[in-house]
């Protein structure tokens, strides 16, 4: 890194750590992709992908990279998009490694602040020697990131002009579902224009909701769950030590509860709420509060006036009644952004007004005044953990309960986004970067870099590419139908959730807390199959892998 003051002893040690590769990539450039079965595009989105809808699944095999015989200088651009996720710097390093192995004349360009840098031609050239100093480091500050999106024909044309000015063979987009939606649409646009730049996606998100479509896990989720589990485990030990507080802990993950589920499996808290289950079962807010109050009373009868309750970030918008209330509020505020609490209450239908009035005033104000960039309720800013605590306390007091109840609230999420990547994520990201480069070098446009068989040793991981177009669905966005890559929600019939339900009653009445401790960097933890996320481990064993 350019500033020695930013290099801690751990960062310095991790820079020098050895990175291993899947067998196919270790031989690069003596590797090529074999075309397998064509991956179908959903009929509902065929009209959007007339140029990239017919593409095969790609599987790496031994051979010679086609670009190796051309002896041309290869030029690739790369950008981070969306929230940071541990391991991003290793993706860029992997890109550079593959390009350098082919020729030291090849050039890598990094766009500053994501798609904003692409649209404005704001980039830096990245040398392999420079990137080595970023090995295994956390954060996205190598290039910075943003949530800028490509919207409209002009933006796509602008992106093409910048890529043309740099004579790029490829553009690698490191991002989540929204970012890769942009990547897939940009790839289609380039293909229609017969433009040479190949667009490749890399699956990133701590939330773990970019999976399926052959993607076993998005990078960063393992590190995030380990960091969060350490923090939650520490809180569990505090609860067990002092025996006087309940801890309501909200965890990141607005749409999907993967991070909450993985943390629960690692820590074994008193109780875990899963947004997808709340929606499926139609659990009302009253019923949810009653069940939590009942849990607290049951534990009190056993002399346990403490516990740890995990709350996914997006829980509140999955609760029946509140979800419809939020839609009504969005519509009312879109028409008149100057509404106050009083005028809102007067404008609501009786059912919605009753629900809003039942909430603490602070939550009412957050629903009304905290808006995102689209003018909708900013769910991530709603302190759901405080809402639950307040309503549980009211319920216990209304019943003249003598149950002692003292509680604290926490929110964990930002603490994990820029952590040093775990052993798993460090190797995984390095392999993803090399895979992305290999796809560009074969002039494969509109693909997601893919590494599978992740439960095995690194050398046995499989290197693949899956067409981005095959991942699209049709959804209504901003009042019109659009092709999008959907977030993957927790599978309520999957082995990870079923394990949680199997242990739920036991964890609720007994103290089964685990304290995983900090993410470990010494030793050779990748030889331990349990070092991968527990969710992935359970999924792999359930399907007999």
UniProtKB/TrEMBL annotation:
<dbReference type="GO" id="GO:0003872">
    <property type="term" value="F:6-phosphofructokinase activity"/>
</dbReference>
<feature type="binding site" description="in other chain">
    <location>
        <position position="313"/>
    </location>
    <ligand>
        <name>substrate</name>
    </ligand>
</feature>
<feature type="binding site">
    <location>
        <position position="83"/>
    </location>
    <ligand>
        <name>diphosphate</name>
    </ligand>
</feature>
<dbReference type="InterPro" id="IPR011183">
    <property type="entry name" value="PfpB_PPi_PFK"/>
</dbReference>
<protein>
    <recommendedName>
        <fullName>Pyrophosphate--fructose 6-phosphate 1-phosphotransferase</fullName>
        <ecNumber>2.7.1.90</ecNumber>
    </recommendedName>
</protein>
<dbReference type="GO" id="GO:0005524">
    <property type="term" value="F:ATP binding"/>
</dbReference>
<keyword id="KW-0418">Kinase</keyword>
<feature type="active site" description="Proton acceptor">
    <location>
        <position position="207"/>
    </location>
</feature>
<dbReference type="GO" id="GO:0046872">
    <property type="term" value="F:metal ion binding"/>
</dbReference>
<feature type="site" description="Important for catalytic activity and substrate specificity; stabilizes the transition state when the phosphoryl donor is PPi; prevents ATP from binding by mimicking the alpha-phosphate group of ATP">
    <location>
        <position position="178"/>
    </location>
</feature>
<keyword id="KW-0808">Transferase</keyword>
<comment type="subunit">
    <text>Homodimer.</text>
</comment>
<dbReference type="GO" id="GO:0009749">
    <property type="term" value="P:response to glucose"/>
</dbReference>
<dbReference type="GO" id="GO:0047334">
    <property type="term" value="F:diphosphate-fructose-6-phosphate 1-phosphotransferase activity"/>
</dbReference>
<feature type="binding site" description="in other chain">
    <location>
        <begin position="252"/>
        <end position="254"/>
    </location>
    <ligand>
        <name>substrate</name>
    </ligand>
</feature>
<dbReference type="GO" id="GO:0006002">
    <property type="term" value="P:fructose 6-phosphate metabolic process"/>
</dbReference>
<comment type="function">
    <text>Catalyzes the phosphorylation of D-fructose 6-phosphate, the first committing step of glycolysis. Uses inorganic phosphate (PPi) as phosphoryl donor instead of ATP like common ATP-dependent phosphofructokinases (ATP-PFKs), which renders the reaction reversible, and can thus function both in glycolysis and gluconeogenesis. Consistently, PPi-PFK can replace the enzymes of both the forward (ATP-PFK) and reverse (fructose-bisphosphatase (FBPase)) reactions.</text>
</comment>
<feature type="binding site" description="in other chain">
    <location>
        <begin position="205"/>
        <end position="207"/>
    </location>
    <ligand>
        <name>substrate</name>
    </ligand>
</feature>
<keyword id="KW-0324">Glycolysis</keyword>
<feature type="site" description="Important for catalytic activity; stabilizes the transition state when the phosphoryl donor is PPi">
    <location>
        <position position="204"/>
    </location>
</feature>
<feature type="domain" description="Phosphofructokinase">
    <location>
        <begin position="75"/>
        <end position="438"/>
    </location>
</feature>
<dbReference type="Pfam" id="PF00365">
    <property type="entry name" value="PFK"/>
</dbReference>
<dbReference type="InterPro" id="IPR035966">
    <property type="entry name" value="PKF_sf"/>
</dbReference>
<dbReference type="InterPro" id="IPR022953">
    <property type="entry name" value="ATP_PFK"/>
</dbReference>
<comment type="pathway">
    <text>Carbohydrate degradation; glycolysis; D-glyceraldehyde 3-phosphate and glycerone phosphate from D-glucose: step 3/4.</text>
</comment>
<keyword id="KW-0479">Metal-binding</keyword>
<comment type="similarity">
    <text>Belongs to the phosphofructokinase type A (PFKA) family. PPi-dependent PFK group II subfamily. Clade 'Long' sub-subfamily.</text>
</comment>
<keyword id="KW-0963">Cytoplasm</keyword>
<dbReference type="InterPro" id="IPR000023">
    <property type="entry name" value="Phosphofructokinase_dom"/>
</dbReference>
<dbReference type="GO" id="GO:0005829">
    <property type="term" value="C:cytosol"/>
</dbReference>
<feature type="binding site">
    <location>
        <position position="177"/>
    </location>
    <ligand>
        <name>Mg(2+)</name>
    </ligand>
</feature>
<keyword id="KW-0460">Magnesium</keyword>
<feature type="binding site" description="in other chain">
    <location>
        <begin position="414"/>
        <end position="417"/>
    </location>
    <ligand>
        <name>substrate</name>
    </ligand>
</feature>
